[in-house]
Protein 1
Amino acid sequence: MSTVRVLIVEDDVVDRIACRRAFAQAPGFSCELLEAESGQEGLDIALREKPDCILLDYHLPDLTGLEFLARLAADQGEPQPTIPVMMLTGADSATVAAEAMRRGARDYMVKDSDGRYLDFLAGAIDRLLREQRLIDEKQQAERVLRQSQKELRELAAYQEKLKEHERTRIAQEIHDELGGLLTGIKAYISVAIERSGEQSDPLLNDAAKLAQDAIETVRRVITDLRPSVLDQLGIWPALEWYAEQVAQRSGLRCSCNITPAAMALELDAERSTMLFRVAQEALTNVVRHAEASEARLLVDRDGDNVVLRVEDDGKGIESAGLSDRESWGLFGMHERTRRLAGELNISGKAGQGTTLQLRLPLEDKNG
Ligand SMILES: Nc1ncnc2c1ncn2[C@@H]1O[C@H](COP(=O)(O)OP(=O)(O)O)[C@@H](O)[C@H]1O
Ligand SMILES: [Mg+2]
C-alpha cells in the first residue's frame, strides 16, 4: 500500500484533528498529512511539497476557496491547478461547490455538522487519485503522440527535400550520360545516311527516327523529374511553361493567368518548389480524373499571401476522394501546405468541376 500525501488547508484545528483521526482509522488507507492553517501557508506548502491532493476548506482566514484555486493555478503557471483539489464546503453551499468545480476543483464534500463526511473522506481521496492517474496517463499519451506527429512531419519534410535533390541529380545524370549517348548515336546514323548517298537504306532512316524519339523521350523524362525552367527562370515562367506542356500533351485547354502583383513576388526556393509541385499534382489530377475540357491556373497576391487556384470544368471531385487514405497526391499537397503554414481547400460539385485553392504565406509563420 503506497502512502498518499494529503495537504489539508483548514483553519479549524478541531476539523484538522478529526480528519487526521479519520485517515488513521480508514482501513487500507495510508496517508502522510500535511497541514496548513491559512490559504497562504497552504499555497506555500503545495508548491514546495507537491502533495498528491489537497483538501481545501472553503472559508479560510485570508482567502476564499475560489481565490485559493486561482492563486494555485497561477503559481503553477497553468490555467487550472494540476494538483487535484477536493473542496470542503458548508452544508448550504451547493452553488459555491459548483463554482469551485468550474474553476478546477476536482471534487467536493459537504461538511455535515455531525462529521459523517469524515467516514467517506478516505474513499473519496482514493477515487480522486485514481482519476488523477488516468488524467496523467492520458496527458502522457497525448504528449507522446504529439511528439511522434512532429517527428513524422519533420521526417516527411526531410524526405521531400531529399527527393527534390535526388530528382535534380538523376535528371542531370540522364541528361549528361544518356542524352549524350543518344545524340552521338543520332549523329553516327546521320553520317551513315549521308555516306550512303541517294540509295540510303530505309532501315537507317527508321533508326534515325527512333533515335530522335529517344532523345525527345529523354528530354521529357528529365523535365518531369525537375523542370530546369524552375531553377533557371523561376516559378512564374515555370508555371506558364507547365500549363503549356499539359495542354500540348493532354489536349486539354489549359490557361495560366498570373497577376502582375503575383508576378512581382520573388519566392524562395522552398516556396517555389512547393507551389510548382502543388500545381503539378493538381493539373495531373485534372488530366487523370476530371474528364474536363478546360483547366485554369490562376495566381494572385492577397496581402502577405500568394494564392494559387486550379479550376477545372470536369465531373467534380467527390468528398470520398478527399478523405480517402489512399489519396497520396492530395495528402502530399496538404502536408506541403501545412509545413509552410498555408491553407489548402479542395472542393467539387458533381458535373461542375473542381476547384483547388492554396493560400501560402510569404513570410515564415512556423518560426
Ligand atoms: N480534379 C479532379 N476531378 C475529379 N476527381 C479528382 C480530381 N482530383 C482528384 N480527384 C479524385 O481524388 C482522388 C485522389 O487524388 P490523388 O490523391 O491525387 O490520388 P491519385 O491521383 O493517385 O488517384 C482521385 O483518385 C480522384 O478520384
Ligand atoms: Mg493524383
Note: Residues 285-286, 288-290, 312, 314-315, 317, 321, 327-330, 354 surround adenosine-5'-diphosphate (ligand 1) (CB under 6 Å).
Protein 2
Amino acid sequence: MDSRISDLLGLIFRFPAPWVLTGAGISTESGIPDFRSPGTGLWEKMDPMEFSSVEGLRRNPRAFFTHGLQTIDTILNAQPNTGHIVLGQLQQARLIGPIVTQNVDDLHRRGGAIHYYEVHGHFRTASCMSCRNQVPISEVVSQVERGQIPPVCGYCGGTLKPDVVLFGDMMPADYQEASLLAGRYQYIPKLMIVIGSSLTVSPVNYLPLEFNRIAIINNTPTPMDYKADLVLREQIGEVMGGLWDEIVALNEGNSPEPVPYGFNFGHLIAYLDNEMRFLAGQKTRMTASRESLARHTGYIKADLEAAQSIIQAFPAIGRQPLEKAMLQFYLAEIERMNKEFAVWSSETGIEPNAEQSRLNKLLQDNFKDNVNAFLTYTNETEPLPDLVEHFAACAAGCFGFWSFSSRILGLPVPLQDEWENFKKTAKKHRVRQDLDQFLELFSP
Ligand SMILES: [Zn+2]
C-alpha cells in the first residue's frame, strides 16, 4: 500500500466531501494536450492569442475556426481516463463534493460525475455573439465544414462562438456559482484537492483560498504547494486508480455504496484537526495569552472527549465495511490528537480549564450552513432536480447528526420546529423525497 495514497485517503476521510479542482493535467492521459505547456501544446508554434481570444476570433475568423475544428475533433474523440472515472465514482459514493474544472472537454460528465462546474465553459454548444441564441456544437462544425466561416446565427446572422471561455470573455455563471456555494460552508474546515492544474490561470487559481486545507496532485510545482497538506507529483491516473483500489480494499473487495447522509463524524475530526493545528502554531510562536490558551485548550479537551463519545455511541452494526473502517480511522485520529494535546500541555505547562464542549453549537451551525447551501444551489441558473434532492438530503443528514450528538452528550435535542421549518422550505423548492428518512440512520 502506497503511503502517499493513504495520506490522500486520510485527508478525504478527515475533511469529508472535499471539493476537487481539475486542470488540463487530468486530461492529458486522454490524449488532450495541455495547450499551455510549452512544446506539447495544441497551439504549438502558433500565437495562442490568435486562437483563444475574442480578439483573435474577430481579427482572423478563418484561422480561429479552422484551428478550432481540430480542437473540437480531438475533444469529441477523447475518452475519460482513470482520473475522470475515479472522480465520478468517488462523487457517486459521496466521498467527494463538487468538481470545479478548468477543462472544456466534457470528460468529467462522461466519466460519471454528477455535480461539476465548468468554469472555462465547454464545447457542447455555441452561442451567437449578438443575440445569445444557443445551438449544438454540431451546427458550428457543419457550417465550418461547408466553408461558412465564421459560422452564423440563424436568427440574426451574428457570429456563432463555441461556449468556451476565451481570453477577453467574461467568466461564465458556473464560476460565480461555484465560488458562492463554496463560501456557504463556514463552520467545518474544508479541503480542496487540486488535480492537474498548475494554478496559474486567474481567477480560478484563487478558488483554493476559499478552503482551509489544500492537497495537490500535479506533475509540476504550483504557487500553492507551500500551503498544501499534501503534494503528489505522480501520474494522476496512477494516484486515482490506487486511491480507488484502497477504498475497495477497505470495503472488503466491493465497490462502496454511497456513504449515508448524516454520516458526518469526519466533521468533528476536521474541526478538531484545525484546532490542533492552531495549538501547534502557538507552540512555535505564542500570540495568545496563557489565560486565553488555558480556556481555549479547556474547550478542545472537552471537544475531544465529546467527539469520542459521539463516535463510539454510533451503532456500526450493519454498516458497510468502508464505514466501519472510517469510524475506526476517526477513533484513531482522536487518540492521535489526545496524545498531541498531552504533549502540548506538558511542554507549555498550560493546564486546560474545565470547560463545556462546543460541538453541539458547531453541529447546529453546520446544519444552518447546509440549509443555506441547499438554498444557494436551488438558486443556480440550471439546478438539476437530482442535486436539489441531494442538497436537501445533506441538510437533513446534518440535522439528524446534530440531534444524535445532542442526545449522546445529554443535551436537549434540537427543536422540532427547526426541522418542520426546514421541511417546509424544502417542499417550497420542490423537494419530493420524504426527508424524515434521513433521520433513521440515528434512530435509537
Ligand atoms: Zn443571433
Note: The pocket of zinc ion is lined by residues 128, 130-131, 133, 153, 155-156, 158 (CB under 6 Å).
